[in-house]
Amino acid sequence: MLFNSFHFLLFFPIVTAIYFIIPHKYRWLWLLLASCSFYMFFKAVYILILFFTIIIDYFAGIYIEQAGKMIDKKRLLLVSIIANVLVLAIFKYFNFLNDNVTGILSWAGYRNPIPALSILLPIGLSFHTFQAMSYTIEVYRGNQKAERKFGIYALYVMFFPQLVAGPIERPQNMLPQFYERHIFNPVDVAEGLKRILIGLFKKVVVADRLAIYVNSVYGNYEQHGSLSLITATIFFSIQIYCDFSGYSGIAIGTARVLGFRLMENFNRPYFAKSISEFWSKWHISLSTWFKDYVYIPLGG
Q: How far apart are CA 167 and CA 80, in angstroms?
């Protein structure tokens, strides 16, 4: 299910209304069921793959916390990371790598015996994979207590507002919010709806309209002059920003209506004065994820 779809227009008000009507102790379950429905709308069977990694990471977190020796903690963390990366690699990068191998072998006069996989990419795969990995890493580092309630942990990974395109949250921010008693707050609802409308405007009115021109030029660039190519490139930079930031804004607004706070993901990146400042303002949750879990651990 996509945010800019008629189905979501029906789905979200129903989820919100029931969420605030039912008792607090059942709200996490309702959100989990809603998130499962949201995810299964794309391809129902893929939820089994998602729960495969959720189960591994849930138990990995508990066993990492309980392990007495650092070597055991590292092994458990490695199991969690391998499981997540393996799923990501198969669905997102296998065909890409296989196509490159096929091209190289074909150039050398050989045939690649490994066929391409005829599979669809699960929605939000990278985002919920990175969010799941941040949990086990933070438990390993001692910055986060292992979550004992399986349903709460599953909701942390599957929370539907951020399932498609982030923001990629840390467990320290999200897990406590699932235990909080959220009341219907008109201020939150108004602010959330404003963010949703702005996000939809960016996505539907700006990004999707610019994409028509950009695709027509890039798809037949030999027939276009330099002015058209420059214009298409400028439009593409606006398109990709409005696409990503629009979706993030809708996610933040959707969560805000329900009483949740998600981190800001874009902070006027095109006004940055340097490349480093640009990346600190562009898809902030993703760039900080790589900084904290890849760049700094590698000595950056």
A: 21
Q: Residue 9: how many CA atoms within 13 Å on its side-chain side? A: 5
Helix (H) / strand (E) containing 238:
helix 226-257
Domain positions in the chain: 1-181
CA 181, 185, 189, 192 torsion-angle sign: negative
Q: Are 244 and 267 in contact (CB under 8 A)?
A: no
Q: What is the DSSP string of 120-186?
A: PPPTTHHHHHHHHHHHHHHHHHTSSPPP--HHHHHHHHH-GGGTTT-----HHHHHHHTTS-----H
pLDDT, one tens digit per residue, over 167-222 is: 999 999 999 999 999 999 999 999 999 999 999 999 999 999 999 999 999 888 88
What is the C-alpha to C-alpha distance for residues 14 and 2, in angstroms, rounded to an integer?
16
Cα–chain center distance at 154: 15
Are the CB atoms for 157 and 50 separated by under 8 Å? yes
The two structure tokens encoding residue 10 = 């029906």
Side chain identity at residue 209, one-letter code: R
CA neighbor of 135 nearest in space, from 84, 178, 179: 84
168, 125 contact by CB (below 8 A): no
One-letter amino acid of 89: A
Residue 54 pLDDT > 80: yes
Q: What are the tens digits of pLDDT across the range 115-147? A: 766 677 777 888 889 999 999 999 999 999 999
